[in-house]
């Protein structure tokens, strides 16, 4: 079974992947010249394997969140906004985290969703290796597919540890990406209202 291009694994398959990764991480630590029997490192391969499979990359192996959708019986046609959603993802270039906030808005057509589902969508998409630009677009694609809104807007700002811990070693930069569609792209008032909400 596939979900948004990702393979959905059974619990048994996830366990097998975790055991295989544990062996890989053991080899990596030994290759770096460290003693795997050191008390500080003995359980490290197991912890690393669990972290990657069960936490950092679980969005690659688990089913998409259930988007609870309701009929827009009151014909609400203004912006629905959810902000300051925590983002903790992993850069696919160096497998180092990037951390920040996501902001989502949509203008309903004939459907509205449970507001917590927007946060769950972000959490599902963030749990995989990727670049921030792709994640921003994927979240917008998903909301557009599930709700068919008049407009959708997604804005993400994050600090990338690959720029802090290595390379340019830039501590104060913040990467910002946005995806605006439908009414948010066509109507400058709607777009401005969204970005004003982000600033607040």
Description:
With about 200 residues, this protein is an alpha+beta fold. It folds into two domains: about 60 residues, GTP Cyclohydrolase I, Chain A, domain 1; about 130 residues, GTP Cyclohydrolase I, domain 2 (2-Layer Sandwich), CATH 3.30.1130.10. About 40% of the residues lie in helices and about 25% in strands. The chain is built from seven helices and nine strands. The chain has a five-stranded mixed sheet, with helices on both faces. Strands 1-2 form a two-stranded antiparallel sheet. A two-stranded antiparallel sheet has the order 3-6. A hairpin with a 2-residue loop joins strand 1 and strand 2. The mean pLDDT is about 95.
How many helices? The count is 7
Supply the helix-strand structural class: alpha+beta
Mean pLDDT: 94
The main pleated sheet reads as: 5 strands, mixed
